[in-house]
Amino acid sequence: MKKIISFIMLFGFACLINASTISDKSGTTGFTFLKIAQGARATAMGECYVGLADDVNAIYFNPAGLSQTTMHEVSASYVIWFEDISKSYVGYVHPPFNFGTVGLSINYIAIPFEKRTIEDDNNYSKVTLANYVISAAYGKKISEKISAGAVIKIISEDLDTKTNSGFAVDLGGLYKMKETFNLGLSLQNIGGNDTPMNLRLGVLKNLMDKKLSLLSDLYYGLADGTMSLGLGGEYKLNDYFCPRLGYRARFNNSNLTGLAGFTAGFGLKYQKYNLDYVLAPYGELGTTHRLDFIIKF
């Protein structure tokens, strides 16, 4: 119980330190779709995953976590976002070679809108903007306690009359302080002036013989000054079912109302098949549902 209280106090202390830092630079970078977190499991736990990162979604959150995978993993997901925006994702992780673990993912975001050339409700065309990022990832154990990883990204953003493209790099580290306590660090989207470079710092605490996992992640946008802090957890009820809860305080989006910030979901497992679901409300913007399908073999 003392360990749980200490964990919660650490989370609260971090909130007090960072809540006063609110940026006026939100939305000033390009390639903003890179900020959309990947994975129903991670999203259900308040997007807290840097300190855990033990499956194919480590490609997005912390490539150092790829060193924890021991099997082939294939993931596929499809998300209907706000205003008919859709997000498709496919990821793959190969079991460790002697030189480390490798992964590959493709993330595609389609944004439909009505294009008007003149001020007339009867003269418009429907257009879909296509944005994507292709990621090649690598992770390796440096020692029994330390892992490191990197991701190279090819990015394309469709702005209707113009297309932007570029490259970015992610760097990640994972430190197992104890058998039940991890520290994770990820520096994402290192690239040109347009990329939304950010820093993620996460902690993981396992309790009850690793049936209960508590996590907290701090996100800071180095390019635009945005900041958020999350707390989440999952409980392995048995070998087949795992409920999850989370909350993320977004200090630069205080206008969101209702249950915005809270997330809930679950994981189902049967043999080599894994199904993850999350419900994430965003106030007046609406509620999103995510479903991920992962095969491990």
Report what the structure shows:
With 297 residues, this protein is mainly beta. It has a single domain (2-296), classed as Outer membrane protein transport protein (OMPP1/FadL/TodX) (Porin), CATH 2.40.160. Helix content is 9%, strand content 54%. It contains 3 helices and 14 strands. Strand 12 and strand 13 form a beta hairpin. It has a 14-stranded antiparallel barrel with strand order 1-2-3-4-5-6-7-8-9-10-11-12-13-14.
Write the layout of secondary structure elements.
Layout: H1 2-18, H2 40-44, H3 58-61, E1 73-80, E2 86-97, E3 100-115, E4 125-141, E5 146-158, E6 163-178, E7 181-190, E8 198-207, E9 212-221, E10 227-235, E11 241-250, E12 262-270, E13 273-281, E14 287-296
